[in-house]
Amino acid sequence: MKYSPILLLSASLLSSAAFAGSNTEAAVGGALGGALGSVVGEHLGGSTGATIGAGVGGAAGGMVGADKRSRTEAAIGGGLGAAGGNVIGQRVGGSTGGLIGAAVGGGAGGAIGNEYGDDDDYDRRDRRYRDDHRHGHPGKAKGHYKHKHKHHD
User: Fold this and answer.
1) Which of 28, 82, 94, 126 could form a disulfide with 106 if both were Cys (CB 3.0 to 4.6 A apart)?
2) Residue 111: is its pLDDT beyond 80?
């Protein structure tokens, strides 16, 4: 039963997909993914494997817990946060510190990335309505207007 915590973390990470949407879920996903990736990576490749595993796990966890329109940003934030947290944690407290750092960094990065992605969507949506200045007849295509030349004799 040495791997029971890993299986429990995996089940928690996969079940968080049902509640996907807010910054809290992106943070929980990034934290669980970073911690799980750190544990698996350390068993496979030592401290370097733990850093790589934390980055991949944090990215996957942040993406699973994020809103549909900001999954890329949450994945980048979760991956970078978990990998950075793992490296700093290893320097401060060894492998246990790396595990805690990966969880904290992945959670923070996933939440920040999800929030950043949400802000970007609102800006894009507002700009689309603001820049739409062409008004024509209903039913007419608004993409290209013909220039009609009228000859006056």
Assistant:
1) 82
2) yes
